[in-house]
Amino acid sequence: MTTYRAGRPWRSATIGRIAAVALSLVLTGAVAPAPAAGAVAPVPATAGAAGGLAACPTDPATPKQQLRAMWIASVANIDWPSRTGLSVAAQQAEFRAWLDLAAQRNMNAVFVQVRPTADAFWPSPHEPWSQWLTGTQGGDPGYDPLAFMVSEAHARDIEFHAWFNPYRVANHDDPTRLVAGHPARKNPGWRFAHGGKLYYNPGIPAVRGFIEDAVMDAVTRYDLDGVHLDDYFYPYPVSGETIPDASTYAQYGAGFGSIHDWRRDNVNLLVKELGQRIHAAKSWIEFGVSPFGIWRNAATDPLGSRTSGMQSYDAIYADTRLWVKQGWVDYVAPQIYWHIGYTTADYKVLTAWWASVVKDTGVRLLIGQAAYRAGAAGQEAAWQRPGELTDHLQYNRQHPEVAGDVFFSAKDIRADRIGAVSRLVSDHYSRPALIPARGSAAAPAAPSITSATRLPGGISLSWRPAGSSSPVSYAIYRVDSSPAADPCFFADARNLLKTTRGTSFTDTTATAGAYTYYVTAMDRLHHESAPSAGRVVAATGPFSVVVDNRDAGFTAGSGWGTSTFSSQLHGTDYRFADPVAASDPAWFKAQIPAAGSYRIEIWHPANSGYNSATPFIVAAGGGNQVINVDQRVNGGQWRSLGTFTLSAGAYNVVGVSRWVSTAGYVIADAVRITRV
């Protein structure tokens, strides 16, 4: 990837006095409360997992299908390995930690650099072992890193996309520093120096064939999910230098009007031919490119974007728009590494432009996101704002062509400077997501759950595929209590627990309540089966359920922020909001197994800056009841609101209202509902 250059929540002012009668009208139901946060008009659920078409409300914050990935860079030991010369055990432990981080952040793919500088992270017959493993080019690391990485990723049901840099030979320009058997030393006519680095000459047909062969060796020998090229094609411009390929143009450029058109054609041929070879060998492998974010500016070309930055079409000879329109790639992941409102290259402008390019082509759009800029020293003020990245993904929702995001790079996801990544995950990745399906193949048959057993550590599930079908992975869904099967359970990811490539799973988040589990099967291209028959697991002992603000049963509008400021929180964070003269409650939804009396308790952190009369709404059987709670005191523990008569069913049981005349944040963290 290219790096491009081009605590405590703030207190708000005290709101004015609010009429108590207006508050009463809303909270008692005389005025209907606002819809649950994120709810949209009913849309048809997809066939397959839903078992047919149905009108289902879906939450854009919990999408069913979305690719979520991070780049793991090996060149210069950016991410992995963290340095050269680590033992095999240390290298492997580091990589497992990256995968665990991806899983914790509800990501489902990694893009790992396996050919950074005309070398290899596997025993390639074409190129030497990478120097970034041992410190010595050609040095055997003592194991097969690519085989290890693919196996570990798939064990977590994380897709492994192998990332190749096509033309870069070395980050220096001294060929004698290359290992003696390096193809660039054995074939000096294949290379040139430019800007202090060595490159393979894209204009030589033998070079193109060699690069394709080097990539195809990994494709044919390893169980890859994707082949990924980055933005390095012809070298980026260097002041005072020209690319030294005039003699190559004289030899191979017949029929082209200019050396520039010829250079673009050389890259076009590599992309087209490599895609064809990959799909001929393994049709399921996804082939894509992450180009520089600007193709051309509209001032240069009316087909270009309303930007004014460097143009990859002209500067590095990457005609990515053509690759999309011709269908030579399965996806494109432009590196839109600029903030919203940036004059030269506005994130919104470029995202909308790329969405228009891929529209109706069958090529998927992923967005390359600059996690490396969030909170980093020296970056613009916009990148010092924790909400910049999350606002990017919020804007993406306006463009259904955007199928997901890839973040550069892994170390910045881990660093989580200024909490920007945590904010993004809370807002957009709170639930797992399936990889978007590709192609039109029939989905597998529905699997069958063979056992569901309560154990001390959770509920253990096992299942088997249907007949002779051979699914690649499975998705596990959990619904509270044991209602009749409903296609809307599967319309988004609110009930999705996990995906796995195994045939068993232990739900360690289960409590004593009753649940119904469903399992679906997916093929290599992520087509999802209809759900299995539901398997009910009965409640044990008195009914009690805890709903945290991170659970699927919690909903809140955009006016509610997320904080980890207080150590008295329940779970990993809590929600806060300013008082307003409007109804904007946060809701805790639960499945109440039967009508009866239930004790309702709340958990919240306490702080002198929080509200002294936060209205808690209880949807009791006889009508909504409101209990005002002083959240300045008694935090970090369960506090009883009282015992209430509740009706059976799944509904919003407890709400936290913002409509209050006293100053201070209102807090929504967790509720506990217990049958008495």
From TrEMBL:
Keywords attached to this entry? Signal
GO annotation (BP), single: carbohydrate metabolic process
Q: Which residues form the Golvesin/Xly CBD-like domain?
A: 545-675
Q: Where is the signal peptide?
A: 1-36
SaeA first Fn3-like domain: residues covered: 452-519
User: Which InterPro entries does this entry report, sorted A to Z?
Assistant: CBD-like_Golvesin-Xly (IPR033803), Divisome_Glycosyl_Hydrolase (IPR052177), Fn3_SaeA_1st (IPR058691), GH (IPR017853), GHL10 (IPR003790), Ig-like_fold (IPR013783)
Organism domain of life = Bacteria
Q: Please report the stretch or stretches of sequence annotated as the Glycosyl hydrolase-like domain.
A: 66-383
Which Gene3D superfamilies does the record cross-reference, listed alphabetically?
Glycosidases, Immunoglobulins
Q: Name one Pfam family in it.
A: GHL10
Protein name as annotated: Uncharacterized protein
Taxonomic classification, please?
A: Bacteria, Bacillati, Actinomycetota, Actinomycetes, Streptosporangiales
